[in-house]
Amino acid sequence: MLNRWRQRDDFAPDLRTIALIAPAQLVSPRTLPVARRISRIRNGRAPVTTATTPNGVEVRVFRPAHSSGRLPGLLWIHGGGYVLGSAAQDDHWARRMSERVGIEVVSVDYRLAPEHPYPAAIDDCFDALRWMVDQPDIDTTRLAIGGNSAGGGLAAALAFRARDAGVDLRLQLLTYPMLDDRTRAPDPHHRLWNASANVFGWTSYLGDADRQEAVPARRTDLAGLPSAWIGVGTLDLFAAEDRDFAERLRAAGVECRIDEVPGAFHGFDLVAPRTSIAQDFFARQCDAVRRALAHD
After folding, report:
1. Active-site option among 78, 91, 266, 269
2. Is 132:75 a contact under the CB 8 Å cutoff?
């Protein structure tokens, strides 16, 4: 019992109660169908503008109320370990980001693994980005990409593809991104996404892909990537790999800021969005986007 309370005290005060009841693992091969049904129930229900790219990828579009003219754009990629979730689950986040920063946010419904392994998801994200570039109401000189968890991993992978295709981006907003298939050791503090879930997610996504190409943390040429903001909790499974990636970006001459949240576990802002720690985390995301997409 003493060890349990010591572990509890390691979490940030805002998160200690929920950390006691939050599961360590949300998804496994056995629970995937149920997890997918639950994620659909959580989807946003407010009216949203939707569109479909010429290649059939669905996107959801958010603009500030009463806005006009060309606005900076952010392509947002949802999380879910590469195996579950949809763009609709982040409607509230996208709407808040759009209103607070004064930008157009486009969220993409990419295909999920294991039914659609690599490169299906990254192909869909790149298609959505190309669709944004063609929109007359988006200032294509001020574009950013971002995502949380697996969406952050896809955003990091998309930054490489955009660089190689000559698409100019100002920022990659990587929220506790899932970057490395070489899973770290398990820890009793991990919540929502642990080492076992990570192995399942990456195995489902990668299939027989070349991991040196498909996994952002395995890429060797980081020069010329857009600036990055990485936000992660210190008790997140991805904390160490995110720090490593930030250091490698800086070594390659890429501006990168990492915001570490003491005592926060994976997805803390999603399960406890009204806490002060989650509100502050969202404000830091907004600040990073605002700085990157400001007029020169």
Report:
1. 266
2. yes
**Residue 209 identity:** A
pLDDT of residue 7: 60
Q: Is 86 a catalytic residue?
A: no
Q: Where are the domains of the chain?
A: 2-293
pTM comes to: 0.95
CATH superfamily of 2-293: Alpha/Beta hydrolase fold, catalytic domain (3.40.50.1820)
- Region for residue 107 given its phi and psi (left: phi exceeds 0; alpha: psi -120 to 50; beta: otherwise): beta
How far are the Cα atoms of 24, 104, 185 from residue 70, in angstroms, in the given order?
A: 43, 9, 46
> Measuring CA to CA, which residue among 190, 48, 176, 169 is closest to residue 106?
48
Is the pLDDT at 44 greater than 60? The verdict is no
Residue 174: pLDDT above 90? yes
* Run of H or E including 294: none
- Our answer to whether residue 149 is catalytic in this structure is yes
- Predicted pLDDT of residue 47: 78
Q: Which of 86, 149, 204, 227 is labelled catalytic?
A: 149
Among the listed residues 91, 181, 236, 242, the single catalytic one is 236
Backbone angles phi, psi at 151, to 5 degrees: -65, -35
Per-residue pLDDT band for 2 (boundaries 50, 70, 90) equals very low
Q: Which two tokens stand for residue 197?
A: 């879930």
| Burial 235-257, CB ≥16 within 10 A → b, else e | bbbbbebbeebbeebeeeebebe
Whether 116 is a known active-site residue: answer no
106 is written with which tokens?
């486009």
Burial bucket for residue 36 (CB in 10 Å: 0-12, 13-18, 19+): middle
Q: What is the DSSP letter of 184?
A: P
Q: Per-residue pLDDT for 3 more than 80?
A: no
- Distance from C-alpha of 57 to C-alpha of 132, rounded to nearest angstrom: 12
Give the closest residue to 160 by CA, choosing from 125, 109, 199: 125
